[in-house]
Amino acid sequence: MSEPIDDFYAVIPAGGIGSRLWPLSRAESPKFLHDLTGAGASLLRMTWDRLLPLTGTDRIAVVTGRAHGPKVEEDLPDVDLNNVFMEMDPRDSSAAIGLAAAILERRHPGVVIGSFAADHVIKRQRVFEFTVRQAVAAAREGYIATIGIQPSEPAVGFGYIKTGDELIIDDAPMAALVERFVEKPDLATAREYFADRSYLWNAGMFISRADVILDELKANEPELHAGLMEIADAWDTASRDEVVERVWPTLKKIAIDYAVAEPAAEKGRLAVIPGQFDWDDVGDFASLWTLVGDGRREGVTTLGSNQDVLDDNATALVVSETDRVIAMIGVENIIVVDTPDALLVTTSEHAQRVKQTVSSLQNKGRDSVL
Amino acid sequence: MSEPIDDFYAVIPAGGIGSRLWPLSRAESPKFLHDLTGAGASLLRMTWDRLLPLTGTDRIAVVTGRAHGPKVEEDLPDVDLNNVFMEMDPRDSSAAIGLAAAILERRHPGVVIGSFAADHVIKRQRVFEFTVRQAVAAAREGYIATIGIQPSEPAVGFGYIKTGDELIIDDAPMAALVERFVEKPDLATAREYFADRSYLWNAGMFISRADVILDELKANEPELHAGLMEIADAWDTASRDEVVERVWPTLKKIAIDYAVAEPAAEKGRLAVIPGQFDWDDVGDFASLWTLVGDGRREGVTTLGSNQDVLDDNATALVVSETDRVIAMIGVENIIVVDTPDALLVTTSEHAQRVKQTVSSLQNKGRDSVL
């Protein structure tokens, strides 16, 4: 194994609940804390393990909500508690990553940071590491580097990155400029992108010098930047709580794609490294089924603590966290998610609609099951 | 309303678990104790209420297992406890109905009895009563009378009765001889039967003088008859328990169709009255869905104590006895049965296969969920 990268911090934003994975994912039990793949570890823990060879234990930071802090610390027993940054409430990815950038830049001027979602699944560790090392090399040249995933199908569920001119950077042989970002396409457009190998999936991974990302934020969202800097100045002092309580609620909620990445791309400051590893954001139960079934949907695939499932000519994904016996008879392409207080039955075609059901439950004030 | 019929006892065999309705029906909670139709009463209670105008409260007998006795008595608060005949263990319908016939013939020589399953659903009460009164009139003439249901579709799930020559019996204008019984047909044969109006469904309702049914049993199954007579002789005496414990376990298990009805038909002693009321044996969840949906399967039909079901473009039957929220998203023709310790997911085409699942659980020794 190669050594950790000098002066490089990984930042794991662990915030999203993953409401398309309801009723498994909950406000109290978000997606990243679940062992969704049956690997014996949570998605967060797998993200930690994946980053460890690049950083060592003392250079991984986690940004998470106060409500999830204790569970995150339990899930990552080796984490340096100074590197767990608790958000007062969720304020989108610019605030989360910006907070980490500002604190880490104060502590370690010139540091390079990379943000990696807590709830994605990646296979082919060596390729992942090779790609991140290239992104860090590009970051050291002053670029904000993103990792674009080589598409494996004409997906309509992701945004795309159009690769532009090649960049000549030592230790980053595959780096190129980002020509532009593209929103989620329709199927015809997605097929064009898939045929044209210069379009990559935007997986939301950004690697940059902390000061570079903060400068970009300052240029595009000056109030947000100022608020984050004020919090970072106070973070490692006795006045942290007072400043956070006062400033955090005023911060604008905006995705880092809009506040940093797209403006940087327009200025020619965004580099992309194609990621030729297997990547999945486990966006809904249909993609989870594909993931754990290695693309095949045959028989009954079971996930969760309860494996007591009888299969009589069924094709189904059964995720159960109860202690019930479950009989699946003759159903085709059915997804069942069985928890103590909520049951979901849907199909892979309709798995995206789970989000609307969660909204509907929210509108009805059914918070106890959300 | 007309008066109860003189010297007529209704016998309700309440024995079958109804394993095609698992996991709702259980050894401890058989089909007949469930309010399957959402009417606010169990199938047993509805059977009782249906027979009451023909008998009065003191002339309905129930034959049930010892395990279910207390629940039956709770469900039928007006039942005469002398008329609840507890079986030591289940020994099929000849033993159950034969026991009732033997006890009632001892108590009331010459009595007419009619057996009516505890777990069928009948609509059109006046037509039902009219039909039973005709069957009793035929029984008084020495016939064993059955009620054959006018088919509403070419069903393959029932046996058929071929109607023969008309019988001339006062007060039984629709009576005819049974030419023969036919086992469950294939679909092509069922279609022939359906087109030929002389074929009726065998609903297992038999009305006869008790002594006539016992004589038929004596001719065909002399040992079974002798055992039942020995038990009946002892029933209303202090030696009941001793005799039951000794004799009941020796009784042959045989359906009354084979021990009584078919042999009687061959001898020209079986009459049939066509029943032109709506009848359903609620054989599985598919027929339950048809029944409660009045034949239409649209949207989500809910049954059971839990009605907390969210429907997003689903077509489903949801039977729930838990307190969970259930989300049905985009599924078509799906049956979900949700109980505290077991969950069934199937389709109406596969609802008959539930019985095999129950067998499979039995073979695995999973009695706690059966």
From TrEMBL, chains A, B:
Which residue ranges does the record assign to the MannoseP isomerase/GMP-like beta-helix domain?
Answer: 317-361
Q: Which Gene3D superfamilies match?
A: Spore Coat Polysaccharide Biosynthesis Protein SpsA, Chain A (3.90.550.10)
Q: Where are the transmembrane segments?
A: none
Query: What GO terms in the biological process aspect are recorded for it?
Result: GDP-mannose biosynthetic process
Domain Nucleotidyl transferase, first and last residues per copy: 10-291
* Record keywords: Nucleotidyltransferase, Transferase
Q: Name one Pfam family in it.
A: ManC_GMP_beta-helix
Q: Record's SUPFAM superfamilies?
A: Guanosine diphospho-D-mannose pyrophosphorylase/mannose-6-phosphate isomerase linker domain, Nucleotide-diphospho-sugar transferases
Establish whether keyword Magnesium is in the entry. Answer: no
Q: Tell me what this protein is called.
A: Mannose-1-phosphate guanylyltransferase
Species the sequence originates in: Microbacterium sorbitolivorans
